Predict the structure of Phosphoribosylaminoimidazole-succinocarboxamide synthase.
Amino acid sequence: MEKQGLLYEGKAKKIYATNEQDVLWVAYKNEATAFNGEKKAEIEGKAKLNNQISSLLFSMLHEKGIQTHFVKQLSDYEQAVKQVEIVPLEVVVRNATAGSLAKRIGVEEGIRFENPIVELYYKDDALGDPLILDEHAIFLQAATQEEIDSLKAQALQINKVLSSFFKERDIFLVDFKLEFGRTSQGDIILADEISPDTCRFWDVHTNEKLDKDVFRRDLGGLTEAYEKILQRIGG
Ligand code: U5P
């Protein structure tokens, strides 16, 4: 497979066309951003860590019967994915209070929910990705009700698989963000990445944060935390 022209550059990845139909070439970047791009840094080694972690997790989800865009890892920092039309919604699953939710409803972090909560955020940098209702997503033509039902059901299924996978590795999956895409056949499948950039991971014994909160809150070295995640998942 050959890499062709750059199609899109986001905060964390560059996407290229390839000579294969419906296959894209993704190159992870070392740039770390937080607070809608207000805080930025170049962190050597981050691209490699996220690509490896996300590739391992997408392969594991595939083995568990979850359809994803992941095709294969191409290099330390690159992977091939199926071309999809990204649904402009961030789907957040929460197993405990943390981050923006703890702040919004005025509670401490780390209170576990009996049942996971799924939230939708509208992907729009200018608006700062606001939390929205299903009805708003439908009004904005981001997705149909049927698509929203499908992506929420998939998000809960993915949460079950990921939570137990990480629990076996002494990590509590506090919350995470997913993105979905439409295939040319009209199916909604898991896309984007799953990495310490997009999840909150807490060590079950020490409560040590092993995710991007280390960068957001200046708690220590980002690559050291991400390396611990990679090691625990067998990378
Ligand atoms: N998250 C992202 N990207 C975003 C916003 C949130 O990946 O643009 C992830 C966080 O890493 C966290 C979860 O795991 O979604 C909930 O974030 P927050 O709403 O508590 O900030």
Notes: The CA atoms of residues 143 and 213 lie 30 Å apart.
